[in-house]
Amino acid sequence: MIAFLVTILTLVAIAAILALALNLQWGLCGMVNFGLVGFFALGAYAAALLSLAGAGPALALLGAMVITAACGAAVAALSHRLAEEYLAIVTLGFGEVVRLTLLNESWLTGGALGLPGIPSPTLRLPGPGGEHVGFLVLCLIALALAYLVVERLARAPFGRLMRAVRDDDVVAATLGKDVVRVRIAAFAIGCALLALGGALHAWHFGYIDPSQFTPIVTAYAFMAVIAGGRGSNPGILVGAGVVMLLIEGSRFLKDVVDFVAADQLAALRLILIGAGLILFLIYRPQGLGREYRRSAASFPTVPAPASS
Amino acid sequence: MTGAMYDQISSKGATLEARNIDLSFGGVAALVRCSLRLEPGRVTAVIGPNGAGKTTLMDVIGGRLRPDSGEVRLDGADISRMPPHRRARLGLLRTFQIARELEGLTLFENLLLAGQGRAIEHPLAALAGGRRHRRAEAAVAARAHGLLERVGLVGQADLPAGALSGGQKKLLEVARALMVSPRILVLDEPTAGVSPPLARVLADLTRDLAREGLTVAFVEHDMDFVQNVADHVVVLAEGQVLASGSFAEVTGTRDVIDAYLGRAA
Fold this sequence. Notes:
heterodimer, A: mainly alpha, 13 helices, B: alpha/beta, disordered N terminus
């Protein structure tokens, strides 16, 4: 049971990192990334290949983040003239390109057989299953760092800049803001975080193949951001947790519901998750959290408002 | 106190010249050899019937639209092919006919955004988060507060901009443009949807800014506002400059009366 819990928490941490990355790109900067899983896979494969080639974990992670961020920057730069919905199509296409490349370039990626035996870093904690707990601790540290980064970005002037580009890019440009550069920066930073999630995923399983990187990963990240509240990093932590608990927790339905066949139950799980999200959108469409807004009085140079 | 902050709002005005602008959409000629000169310390009003090309001309000046021919010069330098954000960095700021507030940001954040410099809005500055950047941001905040006092919106500072009234949004747009230290301020129908008291605030502000040396132009239908605020009036009709001069000169012109009231057959 402990082992199962450790695994679940590890997956929640990775899912939360993906959701935070999507929140930066879509929640704050308004860039729909339907190809999220493609960047996630790119990060996972880059980290895996570097690890297999003998690179240390730090180097493998850095390499994966740089490569994925560069690809993200290229996608954002190429599609900068496209309106929001077209970026969705471009990223969706990118995700498919990545999947097909991974599947077919087997000299590098192992094709459908995938990459086995990926060496992974961990902390050697005492006790049974100590290395799994150790890896969970690593994932939680990574999540904490990712959270710090995105929250700092969201609260800084750069966060306002992203939100302005999201709300009305024409206005941002008339105020002297270089909208294209903002979009490229936000997308690339988000992609670097997706690569972080990908590297942790590859290390956690020790084996990756293209079947792990299906568009459902993208859907889960969107669910987490919608449930958590677009723009709100604390909300998204909760949202990712809730979504993953729903997904993993509903496995136990089979212990409670004995009148449905196992294969039907699998389909029922997805229906339940979808229904949950719909109910959530009906009763709390803005999500759990609200994005950070800097109040005037929080500046030392602004006098506190007179109470009226 | 307020006055001291307010003094820093505008830098020295600049001269803007649009020369022989032609622009057509499909077969429709929106602007035909249209010329306009804006000068420091002078308020220029552009008036004309609906569809005369007033907003199109503002879009050409601001850089949203590129003319088919003709040129736009700022202090003599050709900026005809410059994108809007680079024109803004040179001090050419404009507002929109239908107010475009950034609705997800508060009123105060709208102003902060406009005033924050490129150094402090860099993502690396966010991660480094030095004291220098915090101080720079606090200075922007002080300036924003001063401007909100000036336009009488201090009480609404922390409201989401989308929740403001139409008139308040127009004031927000002007205040936001002023955060950028403009040298030329172009307002597209500043009083549309604005209540009379707020329109008076706008009129006073516009006059004051011009007195300080800022170059101001606006498109307007409210003739009282034009008469009170403008030093120079340009009349557009069917994409062409029909007349220009003082308010009295222009409104006495036969062509102008015809353009507004329809030609007697």
